[in-house]
Amino acid sequence: MTRTLRLLLTVACVLPSTALAQSVPTPGDALAQRVAKASGSESWAKVSKLGFSWTVAGRSLTRSYAWDVVAGTVTHFPAPDERCELPVGGWAKPGDAPDADHLNAHKGWVNDSFWAMAGLHLAWDAGLTFTDLGEQEVPQLPKLGKRRALSARYGETGGYTPGDLYVFYLDEQDLPVAWAFHKGGAEQPNLVATWEGFVTKAGLTLPSKFVLPSGKTLIEIKDLIVETSDAETTGPASRPASGAGE
Question: pLDDT for 152-177, tens place per residue?
């Protein structure tokens, strides 16, 4: 397994549950809310079902999901003839999972849902510290020039991979044009990619592919399905989170 592929499988497995809430709002908090709003956070209450496929471009690695937002369950399809139903928020502790296959499937779901909906996770996830970095050069992507940058760092406990840090580089509408992943809060990024091919459905605006500085497509989000209902789905079951023990 290559180093890049290992990063793909761990780039976003640290998602503690419930919504963004800090006692003293900061400029970083306000910017994070703007990014979440640009991604469709204000439309989320009407979403009842969501589906997508997460694919490593150029490889035979695809995972598909059908998420029942109201029920708080997600069905994982690791292969066309396989399915595994999971609680969206996971289990209180990894040892509570029915078996290793279910636990690994949930780790995949946490990772893949973050790639597909990272902007929304800025409003959903607790344990985040946001910093408005002002205008910054995008590492490895000089063609993008300086961009307003938002740092989002997860806490050191809880989740599958605590302590990770992401920097989102934004356009004039507060949508990310690129991000940098800093594993464990490392000073230098482990992965940098542009966000491209945005798709808007039912008020959600989500990227459909992530491209490396070399120009090679890394990840694709395909087959996006968003269904809505008149009943609002604002409870905890409607938000994905790792729920994994420390």
Answer: 999 987 778 889 999 999 999 999 99
Q: Quick one: three-class SS letters along the chain?
A: CCHHHHHHCCCCCCCCCCCCCCCCCCHHHHHHHHHHHHHCHHHHHHEEEEEEEEEECCCCEEEEEEEECCCCEEEEEEECCEEEEEECCCCCCHHHCCCHHHHHHHHHHHHHHHHHHHHHHHHHCCCEEEEEEEEEECCCCHHHCEEEEEEEEECCCCCCCCCCEEEEEECCCCCEEEEEEEHHHCCCCCEEEEEECCEEECCEEECCEEECCCCCEEEEEEEEEEEECCCCCCCHHHCCCCCCCC
The amino acid at 7: L
Q: What is the pLDDT of residues 23-62, one digit of tens each?
A: 678 999 999 999 999 999 999 999 999 999 999 998 889 9
Average pLDDT over residues 97-111: 90
| Domain limits, the chain | 39-227
Q: Which of 101-110, 152-161, 167-176, 233-242 holds the top average pLDDT? A: 167-176
Backbone angles phi, psi at 183, to 5 degrees: -60, 125
From the options 3.30.310, 1.10.3470, 2.120.10, 2.50.20, give the CATH code of 39-227.
Answer: 2.50.20
